[in-house]
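quick one: pyridoxal-5'-phosphate bound model?
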Amino acid sequence: MISPTQRVATVPPYVFSVLDRKVEALRSRGVRVMDLSKSDPDLPPPREVIQALQSAVEAAPSHLYPPFRGTKALRQAVAQRYRERHGVSLDPEREVFVLSGSKEGIAHLALAFLDPGDVALVPDPAYPTYRAATLLAGATPVLLPLEGARRFLPDLDAIPPDTWRRARLMYLNYPNNPTGAVADEPFLRRVVDLAREHQVTVLFDRAYGEIGLHGYVAPSFLAVPGAREVALEVWTFSKPFSMQGLRLGVLVGVADLVDRFAVVETNFMAGVYTPLQAAGVVALGPAGDWHVKALNERYAQRQRRVLGELARMGYHVLPPAATVYLWVPTVEGMTSQEMTDRLLEEAHVALSPGSGFGPAGEGYVRVSLTAADADIDAAMAAWADWMARHGHRVRPEVPAGV
Ligand SMILES: *Cc1c(COP(=O)(O)O)cnc(C)c1O
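yep, here:
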């Protein structure tokens, strides 16, 4: 057998692909699994978006190679949105790059901003692709622990000077997956100051930017004074418009930084299917706004319900202001992997183990609010029953959430 490259050997298997295999094994035995581990929404994309996709597929010629950086119409719609919602002015020609999903963009971006030996500052816990992309680029991830006591914001002043000196890229994601935390303005300003001082590029992942609950509106990092010089922002159509499987995202920022990314992306990718971009333009219009509103009302309601059930089990989790997640302490005497394995085996409830998002995720499990109401209710009942049946107690902890 040919051994894997060193690069591949450094990267752990993707947390969800491991979990999916376990869930599938149970389902193939006829077990009904209540899956609160993912962020696949139960609400489909807006009808108008699907109709726009269908009619664009029919319209000739839709089969040609798409423009590398995205269609003019979609780039203009993105620039207009940034101007209207965030007061950020972007040149649609050079400062907006359409992605085949933001995960793909995040992964490829590491190759444009990291050389072997460089350091990337990676939050912990975090979306696993930041760390994997860093390792696959031959660079070194330095983990920035996110702790409940600090509202899941990294302690920037704890980063040693030598690390700053070697750092070239910093990943940040607010509203945050998996903790549900949001970033305040003073923190974001501090990031800009330090990134400028140490000449570090910030990749700000705004995947949950539209998923504000209880009236919360998430800022764009590019709206922070000075951020445009040092930051790129990645944004996705997946989370706000339920377009997960359609694969559409954007990278925005100053032309110089986007151009560096474009060297990698135009060599790796041939652009995004043009009809899908037409659908994206519609998603950025009123149909998308209605959808986001309905989605967020639904998530806020579910959040209240789940928090209520958790409180009955003895958990005291504060309600996150954004995202579809709850970051919940494990039960006493179990790692997050043990707890999620046992909940799945013994109660048929699938949650994500916190340790799958990095070592600092140990001690937590992630609950997703995207499953159908009936599944959520059934899962919470089965979880409560599992706690009572086995006499499990909640690990005492600083309150999670923010
Ligand atoms: C879901 C998610 C993404 C990826 O979304 P795409 O579907 O690839 O656009 C990126 N970052 C975070 C933090 C996410 O949760």
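The chain has two domains: 6-44+288-390, 61-285.
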